[in-house]
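DM from R.C. (forwarded with permission)

"hey, sorry to bug you on a friday — could you get me a structure for this? deadline for the figure draft is monday and I only need the backbone to look sensible"
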Amino acid sequence: MEVNIREELMLLVDLQDVDDQLRDLALDRGDLPMEVERLRGEVDEMTQLLDERRGELNEIGHEIARVRGSTDDARTKLAKYQQQLYSVKTTREYDAITVQIETAKSAVNDGEEKVLRMLARENALMSEISAKETALIELTTDYETKNAELRAKLEETETEELELQHRRETIVMRLKKPIYAHYERIRKAKDGRGIARLVGSACGGCFAVVPPQRHLDIRDATDIVLCETCGRILIE
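My reply, with the result:
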């Protein structure tokens, strides 16, 4: 049992060393991966918004053409009815033509007002699209620059990182699952450190005092000892 515990602890030390090196590689990249991801999201969002606005602009263009056509038809009818007004012979014919004239006038007025509203929206859309196209160019340029920088950094450390990941997988395969699970849980919760050395009579991770009766277990590696305060696995 003593040999197994010692082997487990040695594996944990090796694992912590690998994780420290992987963390250093990640720190060297800084916020660049998150920045690239953020910019890519903004580029996608802006592209989608532009597609929507262009689609709306296209629909408004078709609608303006349709309404103008209908208004022109109403204007033609109005002219015809006004001409017919001079040839009516009875009051009944006059009243009927007058109703048709008013209906045609209303159609012309409604059509002209609708076209004016749509033209205003069309102009607003064209301005918005132009501004967003400029913004998209800037975002895309920024994204491509940052992404190229990130790729360069990744290429610099790709071989080293692959070797470390392979080494890590090998260690994890040899570790007992409950011990590894505890190490991972504490490592993720405690700034990347799942183990801590005994410094004097205290935990080297949180500096809480370790009960004297546990010192011998740690030094002789006869048991897996956890810090009662931070939960890190203690080693000598």
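R.C.: lifesaver. The two ends are 18 Å apart (CA to CA).
me: no worries. The helical segments are 2-29, 32-84, 91-174, 177-189, 212-220.
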